[in-house]
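Recall the central idea of this unit: under ordinary conditions, the amino acid sequence of a chain determines the structure it adopts. In this exercise we apply that idea directly, starting from the sequence alone.
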Amino acid sequence: MRYAKCIIIPDDEGLHPVDKRIADHPEVSRELLHNVNLLADETIVTIYQFAGDRDALETILEDSPMVCKYQLSGVDDEIHAYIHVEAHTRLVGLLSMLKEFEFIFDTPLEFTRRGGLRVTMIGDVGSFQDAIPDVPDGIRFKLLKTGEYEPNTDRLFSQLTGRQQEILQTAVDMGYYNVPRAVTHEDIGNELGCTGGTVGGHLRKIESKILTQIIP
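Accordingly, the structure predicted from this sequence is:
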């Protein structure tokens, strides 16, 4: 089984008007897209993971005429949201194209710092190039790599936020998990331009998220 890892990069109009409004709000951050489905009537249902101000997010959704319905859950500043939105040509076109070429998303999908969406698509990688001409106007694909699909490793890492991935990768590269340990939280923080306390907090969250999924 093969995969193609790529970044979906929309222009300034975004993938969907509702998603664009959320992306533009300074107090809400899109972290992960756990699911996205195109329904028979071409409306779209999504499950997002956000960070930030819950009240600000709820105001956006309440005021957006293209939102059919939504539900929010979560604690602190981590928010999970089920959002059902009206059809929009660009996102409908993208999802229809992926369905036509029989690609399956490996969820969750990760939002990049520049507003793209990092996606792992499983299927006939040979048809990836065939699909490119059918990508809707205003969207481009940047292919990162292809290879044999290994679900467990990719899935666990992709569940981390972009900042968590950066901190974990830096910690591993610098020898934090070597025996004996080669660096401290402060060393990693100096490399990334943040405090040792921030690094420690992120690593504890990362370890909790990963370890609770590998214990049977």
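The helical segments are 17-24, 54-63, 89-100, 126-131, 151-158, 162-174, 185-192, 196-214.
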